[in-house]
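Figure-free illustration: sequence to structure, shown twice.
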Amino acid sequence: MEKQISLQVDGRQRQLAVDTRTTVLDALRDRLGITSPKKGCDHGQCGSCTVLLDGRRANSCLALAVAHDGAEIVTAEGLAGGGTLHPVQQAFLAEDAFQCGYCTPGQICSAAAVIEEAAAGHPSSVTKPGSDGAVDLTDEEIRERMSGNICRCGAYANILAAVRRSADFEHEAGPAQQVPDAEITGSPTAEGMPAHREDHQ
């Protein structure tokens, strides 16, 4: 059985007919050609499919597309704006926080959400009782909050540094400012990154 749904993906309104059993991940990858969310475990255990779903991070392999008709989805591709990388993306490049890159889009989406969650005062299981307002993103907090995103290459030390770096940037500059990080401006790594294939149907 198919149902017509509408999704706003990375700022673009998309209409598609999906089987009612289709996950958000499969709708993005197979129907819309948006390949940054990766299919890793397909059981919500590795985090490689993480996207921002109506402003909150979610494992897209566990979410049914029909249950999110009308939703706004942001993938790692959609975080950048106006030709400038998002501060989290900049930090991942500056800290070399990836190896094979398979988990990186999910790590980046999760990291962006972690910073917003902490700024909004949402506690984790390691947040000290009585914390008011924004939660300080200590290494312990970052490790706990990012624990749902697995890196099979083991780049955790650099991922931790990247999240810490981008959290410091957001704190100092504010989330609305996407100023290029001086350490990666003109970086051949950044400039040489190929664009993801997009389906314009």
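We now fold a second protein in the same way, so the two outputs can be compared directly.
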Amino acid sequence: MANRSMRSGLFLLGGFTLAVLLQCNIQSASARETDGRPAPERAVSEQRIVHKRSADSHALALSAASAEAKPAPRSTRKLVSAKGPYYVDFRARTAASWGHAFVWYGKTSERAVNVAGLTPAGDTLEYMLGYVMWVPSETGASYGDLDPEYLTADYRVYLSERDAKKVFAYIKHLQANSPVWNAEFSNCTSFIGSIASYMGLKTPVRWTRPEGYVKRLKEMNGGRQFVQLSSDQ
């Protein structure tokens, strides 16, 4: 009788233990079915995700604030306007001889340019005669003046509208009063040198070759980009 009671107690104890183990396994399996990982690992992972999202949000907020605080770059148009809406561009290009010096002038907002320079009116014969005598001249655009591939040097100077009117009028006056060309005394470098002098720029000697003349002109004036005429001009 005592043995039977002892066996019954052992069976009850074993059944209770089995029930507890089954309940633990069911809870563990439920935790794994959620995302395939044990509950403690999932809790740590979720906490990391929350921290990462918070950090990302903070970084985005800082980036937006930085973008708002950064000043917008000034446009090229405003920079050019600050220098002056008008210009005179001293230029040199290749030619069959020593080269040629001339000027472009106009308004920065317009694509069309005005060209002025001093050349012998004619071809090779007139050019050769111009070394020993005066020959008729031309003062407008010549072959190659508008082609960037022939350009060897340039120096652009900006002007206000008020000063540009005076300088442009002087260029036209110089064109109208330069009827002859001579390689020694009245050549292309002396022509653009007269314009530069009127603008108050320092000028090289007129016998300097065109490319060297324009480069030296820029050098002598420190590469300054804005010119203001004196009040008495």
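Summary for the second example: Residues 2-35 form the longest helix (34 residues).
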